[in-house]
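WARN  no MSA supplied for this record, continuing single-sequence
INFO  ligand: zinc ion
INFO  echoing inputs
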Amino acid sequence: MILKVLTFPHPNLRKKSTRVKDVTPEIRTLAQDMLETMYYERGVGLAAPQVDRQIRMVVIDTRSSDEEGNPTMEDMTELEKKYSQPLIVINPEITKREGKTTYGEGCLSVPGFIETVERANYIEVSALDENGKKIEIKTDGLLAICIQHEIDHLDGKLFIDRISFLKSSKIKSSIKKHGYPERKQERRIL
Ligand code: ZN
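INFO  complex generated
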């Protein structure tokens, strides 16, 4: 089922999400709906609070597509390639961060805006998978950027909070005044 994605300035995007206590069939169904929604919206990742569920779960697929629309691992780093995607990540905790990288980030909850954001280049994350089993993800590349972006959502943070005050104020007041610009469909966003 395709779910409605909340957009800034919806106040529920600012809430801190709570940990998942039990990975129940309902949680697994929500994860599948989130994946369906993410692919429909051409997103690379989606966090539960974006579909108005304030729980610590994110879904991710950073693979790009070939000409026939099939997923390819072509642009991925060696570390990213180790993880089979899509990924369902529950209660993620970043246990290590190394280096710095920048990427032009967008967000399904702030559609139409792309800004360069600085993040850790390499991260280690402990989490649960959709079966409630402990997993560890050690990665760099777009996967590391995406995980950091999605964990921000779980803490009520958006990428526009991580850019300069001037740029952020401009975007926020433009959205509040004029709404969202026409979405450029060709670009996949976080
Ligand atoms: Zn986002």
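The longest strand covers residues 87-105.
INFO  checksum written, moving to next record
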